[in-house]
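User: I'm putting together notes for a lab meeting next week and I want to include a structural view of one of the chains we've been expressing. I don't have a solved structure, so I'd like a prediction I can at least talk through. The sequence is below, exactly as it appears in our construct file.
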Amino acid sequence: MFQEYEKQKQAHRSRMQKVREYSMGGLFLLAGLFFSLRSQLDLEINLRFPPDLTDRIFGAVCLLYGAWRVHRGYKTKE
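Assistant: Thanks for the context. Below is the predicted structure for the 78-residue chain, given as structure tokens.
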């Protein structure tokens, strides 16, 4: 009975880790897209803080990290 409980507990942890990895990966992917494409969007913030190379580099880093988080969630064992 105790082993069954531990098995269920581990499965629940694994599912929660997958959800966390997918959601954090998605957020980083969205942030990466925003910072990468910010110069092409007509936003009020672009007038106060014009986009530069730093935004594109940060966007690329966010995209890579987000893709890695999604991949890590995909590879998590059940």
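A couple of points you could mention at the meeting. The CA atoms of residues 35 and 58 lie 7 Å apart. The helical segments are 2-37, 45-48, 53-75.

User: Perfect, that's what I needed.
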